[in-house]
Design goal:
By secondary structure, this protein is an alpha+beta fold. It has 4 domains: about 80 residues, no CATH class; about 70 residues; about 80 residues, Threonyl-tRNA Synthetase, Chain A, domain 2 (2-Layer Sandwich); about 45 residues, no CATH class. The protein is about 55% helix and about 15% strand. The strands form 2 sheets. A 4-stranded antiparallel β-sheet has the order 1-2-4-3, covered by helices on one side. The protein has a two-stranded antiparallel ribbon with strand order 5-6. A hairpin with a 5-residue loop joins strand 5 and strand 6. Helix 3 packs across helix 5 and helix 6 packs across helix 10. The longest helix has 26 residues. It is elongated and about 120 Å long.
Length: about 300
């Protein structure tokens, strides 16, 4: 360029400068780059994703090392993998733990909708939408979009969606049991978690005590559990602690008490059995519908009333 300034006038210097800039751009475009088989490239990107490599890092490397055609393919492949890849049990459990914390803390389902928008993987996104439904039920809100319509907007809808997302409800219940067992262990009580049943107004957590552990050791822990777990499990009053065959149960009041609707438990379309006269008794702590037979000698006073 220095020689051009000495030999040419200003307009000719601009022409030379433009040629040099075009040449520099051309060198960048036609830099020697190896072309990759797309199947191999897809596998490499997939392995990078599941190993935890950040999305922007994958894009930067592909942009530097690949041809324009392969780079365009790599971006599409990366997007597809992030949305559709299978989630490992470890990833799912870690994600559900984060959802559980949000479920405990958020005041509105709208806060979780923001999480759903930022979640790319279709399976994880569905778990977030299920949590949105649970939070809306807890807070008494009505989501602007029904869950069914939201999932239709996903790129791929799983045929087993209802089965898959039901896992999150079970995992939420298991978290309560795990936290309770951990706290009892801190009190020096050896025990293991059995299961959790959720009724309209209570969660019944079943715990199996270790050999040689007396029920009396846990019977009087109600107030201590409120002090230890009140904030984490939403305990405002001591849980009711009782014995059932083979285990001890902790009946924890639900903060989001539900109304048990008769039509949800009884099939009114089936033919009535006139030889079996029953009346609804309610729903027990396990969430099981209870019927009372009027033929039972123990309920004759009900007829008199």
């Amino acid at each position: 360029m220095t020689e051009a300034e000495n030999l040419f006038d200003f307009s000719q210097q601009l022409y030379v400068l433009n040629l040099l800039q075009e040449s520099d751009f051309g060198n960048k475009i036609i830099r020697p780059i190896k072309t990759y088989d797309h199947n191999y490239l897809f596998e490499v990107i997939y392995q990078a994703v599941i190993s935890g490599t950040a999305e922007n890092q994958i894009i930067e490397i592909c942009q530097l090392e690949l041809s324009l055609e392969d780079f365009a393919f790599s971006k599409l492949a990366l997007k597809y993998i992030l949305i559709n890849r299978y989630i490992s049990k470890y990833e799912r459990d870690a994600f559900i733990l984060e959802l559980y914390k949000l479920y405990q803390d958020v005041k509105s389902y709208k806060e979780l909708m923001k999480v759903a928008d930022l979640t790319k993987n279709i399976y994880l996104k569905q778990l977030v939408y299920k949590t949105v439904e649970l939070v809306a039920k807890k807070t008494g809100e009505v989501p602007l979009l029904p869950l069914q319509n939201v999932t239709k907007n996903c790129l791929i809808a799983s045929d087993s969606f209802n089965d898959d997302v039901s896992i999150i409800q079970t995992d939420f219940e298991n978290k309560v049991g795990d936290i309770l067992v951990e706290t009892l262990n801190d009190f020096g009580i050896t025990c293991s978690y059995v299961d959790t049943k959720t009724g309209p107004t209570f969660k019944r957590v079943k715990i199996k005590l270790g050999k040689g552990v007396s029920f009396k050791k846990v019977q009087g822990l109600g107030n201590d559990l409120v002090q230890q777990l009140g904030e984490e499990l939403g305990l405002e009053n001591p849980p009711m602690i009782s014995v059932v065959p083979g285990a001890v149960v902790f009946d924890i009041p639900r903060l989001d008490r539900q109304v048990a609707c008769f039509c949800d438990y009884v099939d009114l379309t089936s033919e009535i059995d006139i030889t079996r006269i029953v009346i609804p008794g309610g729903v027990d702590v396990d969430g099981k519908y209870i019927e009372i037979s009027l033929c039972d000698s123990n309920v004759y006073h009900t007829l008199l009333a």
